[in-house]
Amino acid sequence: MSTFVKKVAEVLLFVIAASGLTVNAAARAVFVSGTTQQAIRKAISSACNGRSPGTVIFRNGTHFVVVGLHIPSFCTLQAQNQGQAIIKVANNDYGAYIDGNDVIITGLIFDGGGFVTTQSSISNPQSNVTIRNNTIKNVYSGKSGIDSYGVWYGFNISNNHFSYISDIPWSSVDNTDVCEGGANPPFTNHSGLGINNVNGMDQSKIENNVFDHIMCDGIHIAWNYSSSDSSTGAYRSANNNSISFNIFHDHHRMALELQGGVGCFGYPHCAPNLVKNLKIAGNFAYDAYAPYWDSMLYSIPVGNAQNVTMMNNTGVWGGGALQPCGGNVGIEDAEDNSISQGNVLAYPTTCDPSIFKPIFFTSGNLSAGTTLKHQNNILCGGGGPMAGHFGTEGPNNPLTSPPFYNQYNYTAGT
User: pTM, whole model, 2 decimals?
Assistant: First the structure.
């Protein structure tokens, strides 16, 4: 490369960096020349060889994707100016298939389709992917805003906006629409989540995102392929994850759902004692849309997880559209030697306490001899026997307490 060309590249990268976008100064930077899928693929091919860093820059305006883009390792996709480049996705496909590691997607608007991470090994996670400052909206295919085929390591999903993700027009959603089975007549089963990974997550964070008008869950994470049994060949680490400071509203089923292992909840070959040091802090969920019998704000029974911190989250039932009393609990939790502290939960005083379940409760699935602490939580609203108390789904009887809880401990039987 000539000295002149190198100098031009250095100036270009300086200008991009000055715009507030992050660019690796050692990377090849290629602008998308045109708005077609062919132009985008050409830019990706030119900038990203899967072996060394490359950056694809989308100019302001609308670009068109007919079939999802494939993103190799060490590749960055970014807008020339944050929020000014739109990628219009057709044919109910994903906007991007993230095939590699060390990928960054930032500053873009994906309209019609989101992302899927494609590495599906149960023993080797996909790693070091950053998805930040994007908008993913108008996904009516039933796919999620972000889906996963495998385990995530070192992921950073932050400061994104997920909006209108469903499998039917949002104007058609009502409380006969359900998710995750239970679709007995007259119910109709549906799909569409904000972020969905039921394989596992390690050393990762999902923070400062906004989720609105989501058919099923805003965030759904499970650890199906994080096993304590080495004979399974599954990935064996699920530490130091954070799902914090997110905002949820107009979600139909749940704002946040976390599980140890779907289909084998709490069994030794799933994820007991592997999910450790999980932080769920500072989230705000309010105004569910047409909630039904399986709707909750925060469902986090992570099946014998250890040292989970559920702190300073806020949840408000009511004020939303279409029968806000149709929902379920405020917080469902069950983790070994963990703490739920400083959470504030409220629901309408007009809700019928005979059908509205406890606003804060443990599920009764702790390991013998372990403790889950509820401290300094504030529960508001409702009257009658189910108003603002701790209850249990498991073998223990419901426990009634005043609306302020200071050092409330729930210990499993031995």
Answer: 0.86
